[in-house]
Amino acid sequence: MLLLLLGLPGQLGAQEISPWIKYGKWGLLVVTVGFNLASSEANERANQSFDDLTNRCLSDPQLCTVDDSGVYHDPISEELFQRTSRLDTSSRRFLIAGQAALLGAAVMFIYEFTRPPGTPDDNIPFAPLVQDMGNAVGVGIEVNF
């Protein structure tokens, strides 16, 4: 949203869009993909850590006993559980950041698409000319030299 506010300068040319909007939306899409890939990687690592803990518990249930506060008695099992929890949290944060970047890109696309086109630049060699002449309409062309 901050990028959107930075991209709203006072008087731009007729069809000019701020570079913050014009290129920023594409940058945010790239950031979105990056955050989602990072989220996926963290999720895969969390799943692997949880699978390791599950296999450890299935091979020797004694390694997965917990005390009254929910902490594993075995330090390796506790470390696997903490690692899984950290990676799940990291994955969730990456996913939320990716969604926020996607929302920002969508706002920029919508902003750009809803801007009025304005008048054409002066480099068009001739433009149609329409004038109201009371009970008639005058049509012609204007040639610029």
Walkthrough of the structure:
The protein is mainly alpha-helical and 145 residues long. 59% of the residues lie in helices and 10% in strands. The chain is built from 4 helices and 2 strands, in the order H-H-H-H-E-E. The longest helix is centred in the middle third of the chain and has 40 residues. The N terminus is likely disordered.
Question: Keywords for this structure?
Answer:
single chain; 145 residues; mainly alpha; two-stranded antiparallel ribbon; 2 strands; rod-shaped; disordered N terminus
Number of helices: 4
Major beta sheet, strand line-up: 1-2
Task: List the domain count as a whole number.
Answer: 1
Strand content: 5-15%
Helix content: 55-70%
**Major beta sheet summary:** 2 strands, antiparallel
Low-confidence stretches: 1-14
The N- to C-terminal Cα distance equals 44 Å
Measured on Cα atoms, how large is the radius of gyration?
30 Å
Mean pLDDT across the residues is 85
Could you spell the SSE succession in H and E letters?
HHHHEE
Number of strands: 2
Q: From the helix content, strand content and strand pairing, which structural class follows?
A: mainly alpha
Q: So what's the overall shape?
A: rod-shaped
